[in-house]
């Protein structure tokens, strides 16, 4: 059959995958355990010689269906689902890396990922944070023991766009695992595989689920990294095709042993949400562009951070790499406007910590999600006390504009 488009493929994937009673949605399978008429089959499932399910922590049919959808969206060879995006990152890194290894990470990071990397340092995994908007800064940080480079596509909250292509080439030359967190862009706006990513992270909680009603994370292997050259793979997982060694180790050590599994109910919510990802995100991006332009021309705003604006330092790069500029933008308010008062004056825009919701959400970042890291690290990330981050939703633009006008007094 011919290869279908992004939305068509996603909408029809459950129906094409051996549907019970011809259902259009993969059912929610709550069963934790699975039975086999022939006990030998149970053994074969355990030994990986027969396809099947044995225990809900490791595999569940509803979750598998979602894994397949994300693999198709990212053009990957396999995906593993986790309870949250953080679980996906933590479990993958803990299963692939060991003490004495070194990773290079963008300094412009989601706050909890930054915090996780500090924990990795306590476990003997060295982390160097660099400005990833230029590949040469990553290159300068590469050491003999470097195993992996980690970047986000559009960083939160200052919206820096990493040199995704340049870093991809660098990782290929140096045979490094290239892990790209695609949460901000989602597979609708950007395909990390195109720039050489080995592993892709998506927090499904955000744009892919899109409704703020379920948590989930996914790690996808693109098949581009040669795992046979990676000596952290346990002997037991060196049996199948080398392209599957990495994801197998993540599945066994990261998911099975650490146990942050996605629930089948969450998988169902996220799967239904994913059906409208391109529709929602296109509209949210269009709204974000209008609001960012409005703010850029408003005297109450000192600075706007949005890759869609010509004034953004990586505007051209974002234009080349992404289908659109995303639904996140941030502003620095002028000194005369208090960020809390500003937010309290808004009616439609909700003060909330999530992002990638259908509703427009806003948060004073220095006082909340980036509070714990302290003033010094915030300054290094370009986060001012007056900064407000918006995650733009799909409301009617007139209502959003009215909110901004009224609040910026
Ligand atoms: C939210 C987020 C995560 C973590 O996802 P959760 O599902 O909340 O655990 C990771 N990376 C980025 C860029 C995010 O925005």
Biggest sheet: strand arrangement: 1-7-6-5-4-2-3
SSE sequence, one letter per element: HHHEHEHEHEHEHEEHHHEHEHEEHEH
Taking all Cα atoms into account, the compactness measure Rg is: 22 Å
What's the total number of strands? 12
- DSSP helix fraction: 25-40%
Low-confidence stretches: none
Mean pLDDT: 96
Tally of individual helices: 15
Q: How many separate domains make up the residues?
A: 2
Q: For this structure, what is the CATH class of the largest domain?
A: Alpha Beta
Q: Which percent band covers the strand fraction?
A: 5-15%
By secondary-structure content and strand pairing, the structural class works out as alpha/beta
Biggest sheet overview? 7 strands, mixed
What does this structure look like?
This protein has about 400 residues and is an alpha/beta fold. It folds into two domains: about 5-275, Type I PLP-dependent aspartate aminotransferase-like (Major domain) (Aspartate Aminotransferase, domain 2, 3-Layer(aba) Sandwich); about 275-405, Aspartate Aminotransferase, domain 1 (Alpha-Beta Complex). About 40% of the residues lie in helices and about 15% in strands. Strands 1-7-6-5-4-2-3 form a seven-stranded mixed β-sheet, with helices on both faces. Strand 2, helix 5 and strand 3 (about 125-130) form a beta-alpha-beta unit. Helix 11 packs parallel to helix 15 (about 395-405). The longest helix has 20 residues, at about 275-295. The protein is globular, with a radius of gyration of 22 Å. The N and C termini lie far apart (about 60 Å). Bound molecules: pyridoxal-5'-phosphate.
